[in-house]
Amino acid sequence: MKDMTTSASITHMTLTLPEELRTREPLEIGGVVCDPPVILAPMAAVTNPPFRLICREMGAGMVVTEMVSARSLVNEPVKQRWRLDIREDEHPVCVQLFGGDPDEMARAAALVEDVGADMVDINMGCPMKKVVQSGYGAALLKDPGKVERMVKAMTDAVDIPVTVKMRAGWEDTNACDVARAVENGGGAAVTIHGRTRQDMFEGLPDLDIIATLKETVAIPVIGNGDVRDVQSAREMLMKTSCDAVMVARGCMGYPWIFRELAAAFSGRPIPGEPDIEERRRVMFLHLDLYMETYGLRKTMLEIRKHLLWYFKGTPGERELKRRFSSFVDVSSVRGAIEAAIEACLCTDEVVTFPRGLKKHPNRRQAEKKCA
Ligand SMILES: Cc1cc2nc3c(=O)[nH]c(=O)nc-3n(C[C@H](O)[C@H](O)[C@H](O)COP(=O)(O)O)c2cc1C
User: What is the distance in A from the centroid of ligand 1 to the CA of 363?
Assistant: First the structure.
């Protein structure tokens, strides 16, 4: 059998975190323990229950749902209930809401609390035109006064912690004003993606602004942006003194990043990249969880993108695409996974499995939606 060990996995095994980071008290956000301080980011059309369960199994200290519209929840609580599908095994779990009206957000937060979520988060980072034109997502960054009113309305309405995930600013950086507003409103933590709305996903995240924000507020600060291995997590933690890191693209098709980061925080040796049996196990598990959650029709459509991410850039990617039209039931998908694995094992090419995605999966589409 072909040796799939990559030089990357060897590097990762030798890196760890400084002792002061490994031995500090577990992070608590409004009484909810997040251990290790490594969080699965909210990602629309990605962080649904199957993927969240896998990331928790891998060692994520907390998981966040896809963003959910507060208005839809409030207006159609029964019809939209499926969006708040939370499993026993995934706690602590945070539900992210988006919206622009403090009262509506407060009512939606109460529904989130009712379904047993541990935390509720407000989306202040989504750059999409449709969202910001309605005054939601990153548009809220333009009005710290409204941010404070919204957080206050929500903290008054629920007992679970209310948090905010934001970008560094709209065009210019005003993260500290917004974070102060979050703190004044009673928010329990703030996550900052170190890019402005204008930056989208381009350039490097601004770690200085995360560091400044950490000095500005007393509530926990979660650093987000380009964390994709122990080294980048270490850089984020050391340069910003943030209390936790949040991972998005780095875990798409590579949930094993969480077992690496969990090991780094506990002082255990960092596991190498997964072997082929482990990859097969997780892909089969992902498929089974999808079937259990969504049934046949939706699974056959949606599992494709997840499987492609697991094989991105390998000969398995081509093989999978070739077989998409044959996806009719679990055994046909399992067969395609086996064929894709076989394509990786039987090639003369050097096969390097991806460590997450580097770009937004629908970058062009996303950019168009933001222009
Ligand atoms: C496919 C995708 C969907 C996303 N959906 C959301 C979302 O629903 N809510 C949110 O706050 N951020 C969302 N984001 C932004 C991420 O949570 C994160 O802030 C951003 O990708 C930077 O982190 P990274 O460098 O680890 O990817 C999304 C990102 C991606 C790639």
Answer: 12
